[in-house]
Amino acid sequence: MKNRLNSVLIGSPLMWIIITLGVLLRIIQYGYNCSLSIDEASLALNIIDRTYAEIFNPLDYNQGSPIGFLIILKWLTLTFNSGELILRLLSLVCGILSIFLFKILAEKILAGKCVPVALGLFAISNTLIFYSAQVKQYTVDVMIAIILCLMANRLRANKDSLVFIIVFGMVGAVATWFSHPSVFVLGGIGIRLAYFKIIKKNEHREYKLIVCYVLWLLGFISVYVVSLKNLGNHSFLLHYWSDSFMPIPPTSVEDVKWYITYFFKLFKKTLGFSLKGVCGLTFMLGCYSMFRRRRHQLCDLTLPILLVLFASALQQYPFYGRLLLFITPMLILLIAEGVNYIWDSTTDKPVIVCVIVTLLFLHPVFYAGKYLVKPRYEEEIKPVMKYIQNHRNSNDAIYLYYRSEIAFTYYADRYGMNKQDCIVGVASKYDWNGYKRDLEKLRGHTRVWLLFSHIYNWEDIDDERLFIYYLDNMGKKLDSVKHHGASAYLYDLTEEL
Fold first, then answer.
1. Cβ–Cβ < 8 Å for 181, 317
2. Is the pLDDT reported for residue 102 higher than 50?
3. How far is residue 106's CA from residue 120's CA, in Å, rounded to a whole number?
4. How far is CA 40 from CA 62, 126, 248, 309, 383, in A?
């Protein structure tokens, strides 16, 4: 039975079916053309409203993104338009190319029978599909990480001519301008090369690699001076990600729990797999299997993760979610290696490996199917603004919930609105009375639209519900419209009910 299964898995038709599925899932999500979320709109406004030179300045709206990524998007918006599909095009292209590149990497690292497992998990990963249709740099991070791993694998195979080393050095230097976390991948590769090719290779020390290291270092220094030094001291981002910095040394039970919790969050939040226990088990088995037979490859796959942890301990890079998407290829390869270890260890019980693979694919397949027929919406503000455009009178006032301001600003011209004519609400999530005082200023308006998106939710009380409670006691609701993550309400506030 295993021999027949092995021949099916290694066959090329299955591989191309997986690749085609992965490409289609990304294109379909992209084609839904969902509204920009607050994070996307924040980055989009920085790109649209700035010149090329201004892109090098610290970004507005608490954003941080690689300079190279911003420059390409700026060129795309100037060449074509500033619509969502153009802004998301680079992410889509990188997301699709990553599938093909990952197939090559998996074939070089894994046993043939487990390549489809790795490729399948990569192709239908919910997070990889989602960020292939976002105005964010995360799929660029993934693609660059795979490219660097492929080049490191070539160098490990002793195909290390001076020309290739210089090319690798230049690629790594450029990578730092397009992907902030590429420094962790390069750092891991550099440490591994230094140990296996220089320290342990006593007969012929590979001093040519110093050329590569120098080019990487120059690339990192240049991007640090231009961009990264500002992000490292960004007070808002440091506070926002404060829970994602590794406590070292651990001084409490909560600190120890952090290590366990964030280990499993790698599989839940970063990979998007629900059965994190199964993923964690196969990952650890994969690490053990590679440690026994291919330690150099284990270093390539795990050192970037360890370096991110180290940076996290220094409060320089959060160890959480989408910011770790670049290590998705490493995680999936080690999970697939774990499947291979179970396969080889249970030759007489094929049902065991079948159960493990089924559990690994269970939720990814479910979510891939779900979002194939239903878009993964975040904040659908477009249809809400369209409704207001079609139903507002010329004298209607518009009040913007403070977290809807950025997305509204991006779409305002499209729907004949101007933020300067709107009332922007206060940010008062820790003082609910602040919202009430702000709404009191609206008294006397015969018709006022209140627009909500990216609604703050805390302890089962979300701001939208709180606003509606206040408004229902201040006046009369005349109309309303609601879509996923966004809504609007029309009130007459001329007299208290």
1. yes
2. yes
3. 11
4. 12, 18, 33, 27, 17
Closest among 237, 211, 223 to 179, alpha carbons compared: 223
Parallel/antiparallel/unpaired status of strands 476-483 and 397-400: unpaired
Nearest CA among 393, 453, 454, 451 for reference residue 422: 451
Please state, in angstroms and rounded to a whole number, the distance separating the CA atoms of residues 76 and 125.
Answer: 27
The order of strands in the sheet holding 397-400 is: 423-424, 397-400, 448-453, 486-492, 476-483
For 121, which DSSP code? H
Q: How many CB atoms lie within 10 A of CB 166?
A: 14
Token code pair at residue 317: 């890079």
**Is 35 within 8 Å of 379 (Cβ atoms)?**
yes
Does pLDDT of 128 surpass 60?
yes
Q: What is the 3-state secondary structure (H, E, C) of 258-284?
A: HHHHHHHHHHHHHCCCCCHHHHHHHHH
Phi (first) and psi of residue 399, to 5 degrees: -110, 125
- Do residues 22 and 124 lie in contact, with contact meaning Cβ atoms separated by under 8 Å? yes
CA 382, 383, 384, 386 dihedral sign is positive
Split at pLDDT 50, 70, 90, the class of 294 is confident
**What does the DSSP 8-state code read for residue 202?**
-
Choose the most confident range, by mean pLDDT, from 294-303, 427-436, 440-449.
440-449
Tokens coding 403: 């977290």
Query: What's the predicted TM-score (pTM) here?
Result: 0.93
Is residue 145 a contact partner of residue 326, using CB atoms and an 8 Å limit? yes
Write down the mean pLDDT value for the chain.
Answer: 89
More confident residue, 367 or 239: 367
What pLDDT was estimated at residue 8? 47
For residue 477, what is the enclosing H or E element?
Answer: strand 476-483
Write out pLDDT tens, residues 311-343.
Answer: 999 888 899 889 999 999 999 999 999 999 999
CA of residue 347 relative to chain centroid, distance: 38
Tokens of residue 396, six digits: 């209607």
**Which of 38-47, 105-114, 233-242 shows the lowest per-residue confidence on average (mean pLDDT)?**
233-242
Reference 485, options 20, 4, 18, 40; nearest CA is: 40
Pairwise pLDDT comparison (274 vs 151), residue with the higher score: 151
User: In angstroms, what CA-CA distances link 334 with 67, 161, 250, 287, 436?
Assistant: 31, 29, 27, 6, 53
In angstroms, the first-to-last Cα distance of the chain is 75
Q: Which tens digits make up the pLDDT trace of 177-212?
A: 999 999 999 999 998 888 776 666 644 456 778 889
* Distance between CA atoms of residues 137 and 153, nearest Å: 25
